[in-house]
Amino acid sequence: MALIVQKYGGTSVGSPDRIKNVAKRVARWKAMGHDVVVVPSAMSGETNRLIALAKEIMPTPDARELDVIAATGEQVTIGLLAMAIIQEGCKAKSYTGPQVRVLTDSTHTKARILSIDDEKIRKDLAEGNVVVVAGFQGADENGNITTLGRGGSDTSAVALAAALKADECQIYTDVDGVYTTDPRIVAEARKLDTITFEEMLEMASLGSKVLQIRSVEFAGKYKVKLRVLSSFTDEGEGTLITVEEDKNMEQPVISGIAFNRDEAKLTVLGVPDRPGIAYQILGPIADANVDVDMIIQNVGHDGTTDFSFTVNRSDFAKAQGVLESVKSHIGAREIVGDNKICKVSAVGVGMRSHPGVASQMFRALAEEGINMQMISTSEIKISVVVDEKYLELAVRVLHKTFGLDQA
Fold first, then answer.
1. Cβ contact 268:322 at 8 Å
2. Whole-angstrom Cα distance, residue 290 to residue 297?
3. pLDDT category, 248, cuts 50, 70, 90?
4. 390 in a labelled binding site
5. CA-to-CA distance for 199 and 108, rounded, in angstroms?
6. Strand partners, 227
7. Buried b / exposed e across 64-83, counting CB within 10 Å, b at 16+?
């Protein structure tokens, strides 16, 4: 007998029929003798509906009250799911995040989990109950309802699995695992049987939408055994996310190709090449709460430098405005921007022991006439910025170049 934490996304519980299907799946696990804790999201579209409702009252909603409203989506789901599980002949109890005492900090709409009181859950499990806990939510030390931000149910599930020392945390979604790239772009994309936490973390941060990045960080930190599965099929074992690569097997050089369309580039032209200029440019950007991704600096021979960086496309106009406001102060000649770019990345722990991956990647792109505007590397990833119109071609070419279309 094992203790299993199962998380179901919004599409998995998107209708009464789908909730009943989840209940049947949970009942099968319970019938096999396992203890089961279930963490569902709100029904698909419900959180968006609640936020839109709040904005009809207050265009920029008060953060505390928005959490009170947004948290109700999961409360509806846990009640419906608990009833559906009872209908399947199992005992079940549902709890909101605050009821189980998921303690968070006080940062409304994007709170972080500090601790979880597992006593109530363990008591219910010992009495034979399936325990259904609302994802995405908790409460701060003053009892205020908080939410964890978009995709927070993944983090809730992993945190519960860590607190309960569960044998496995299963993330059920609308795909049957983690793929070498998006199958909608590359038909030959393959589902991976395993992937390391490091690789999954890079894939999540670089644009893969399968798992929320905070949940992967949490799972890696607490060594939670994590598996991605489809809630629409009982076939296959999904993708297991492991602590480290299997030392007994030959590790592929590249595990996946990730991409992100939501990129924009800003370039500050002709600033004086002097110590502190990077801070003078990026300091005001940070003060405006804009996250910077890739950075490149080109030093000229005339005592000036060009400084480029990327931001999320939604922050493009704000960042451009900030730069225009400090342009004269930093002595820049011109500010130019481009919000028609994308980032394409090759990820794999095998890079550590295989030299020449970068040159192989750059050659493949060059042969297709794809110009690289920026390059960023880490120990297990290489990212390039290219014109948005080349995104799909670049992904397909790199997927083939690194043999990811071969079983």
1. no
2. 19
3. very low
4. no
5. 30
6. 170, 240
7. eebbebbbbbbbebbebbbe
Can you tell me the distance from the alpha carbon of 63 to that of 151, in angstroms, rounded to the nearest whole number? 18
- The answer to whether 210 is a known ligand-binding residue is yes
For the chain, the distance separating the N- and C-terminal CA atoms, rounded to the nearest angstrom, is: 34
Which class in CATH covers the domain with range 3-174? Answer: alpha beta
Q: Where are the beta strands (DSSP E) in 192-273?
A: 194-196, 226-230, 239-242, 256-272
Q: Which residue has the tokens 């009821």?
A: 99
Domain range 257-401, its CATH number among 3.30.2130.10, 3.40.50.300, 3.10.310.10, 2.40.50.180: 3.30.2130.10
Determine which helix (DSSP H) or strand (DSSP E) holds 189, and give its type and residue range: none
Does 238 show up as a binding residue in the annotation?
no
At 112-140, the pLDDT tens digits run 999 999 999 999 999 999 999 999 999 99
Annotated binding residue at 95? no
| Residue 389 DSSP class | G
178 is in an annotated binding site: no
Per-domain boundaries in the chain: 3-174, 257-401
Residue 313 identity (one-letter amino acid) = R
Cα separation, 43 vs 55, in Å, equals 20
